[in-house]
Amino acid sequence: MERAKAEQIFVEMIENTSLQRHCRSVSMVMEAYAKKYGEDENQWAIAGLLHDADYEKYPEEHPNIIVKMLEEEGEKELAHAISAHYTKWGVPYISRLDKALLACDELTGFIVACALIRPQRMEGLKVKSVKKKFKNPKFAAGVERDEVLKGVELLEVDFGEHIQFIIDVLYENRAALDLEGES
Hints:
Blueprint: H1 3-13, H2 17-37, H3 41-50, H4 64-72, H5 76-83, H6 96-116, H7 127-135, H8 145-155, H9 159-172
């Protein structure tokens, strides 16, 4: 799939600015991981961009709408990765793409939440701070910690290194994601 087509789907399906930021941030993290692993950067970025595309308009059917749309476009691998980005859906993890999307989705959102409560946002955000908040079930209570940990396990990455990788990508893209701190 071309990015322009993915962007068109994204714009048509998602109006909520928080969900837009979430999908864009996951897309950026996925693209960076694809580069690190020598994978298809375009495909990985699109997986991140569209993984929650149907959530706002069809929360009860998520992710079936976007998965079906991608399958109809002939994008079987993208569709599979998106259908597997939550362990409780029972979809097997076959490719590195599948595992990376699971590993990056919830944790990227969590790190953005960590940044948003800080006046300086991404500036100076440390792994230690993210881990401390991760241990507090009341902070970003909607983030399922077991999903994050299962993703880290499947992707076979060190938790702290994974957090740092995501922080670095978000910091690099802080202006585009409206995560710049107060001057």
